[in-house]
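Consider this record:
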Amino acid sequence: MNLFSKLNQIKDLRSQAKNLEKSLVAESSTSSTDGLSLTLNGKSQITDLEIGDSWLVVGQGKRLAREIMKLHDQANDKIQKKLAEKAKDMDIFKNFTANLK
């Protein structure tokens, strides 16, 4: 395989990676518990956070922070699984690595 062909493969891989990145924002995952709800997009950015009135009590700050962190971790785990499936479906690395040999 010549250098020009490998450069084209790299260009194609970059294009596929950009498409994957664009699709990341479209994915979302929500986790909720006891009056709290947190939504992440595929880039792990919080796009929505709802806090019920029961959490807005003096002395609940540390517990609230812990629960938000737990929800973030749960939503992040869900989104990572979705994204792994999406990347697997796109199969962006298969052709590239096969031709590097």
Q: What stands out?
A: Strands lie at 28-33, 36-41, 46-51.
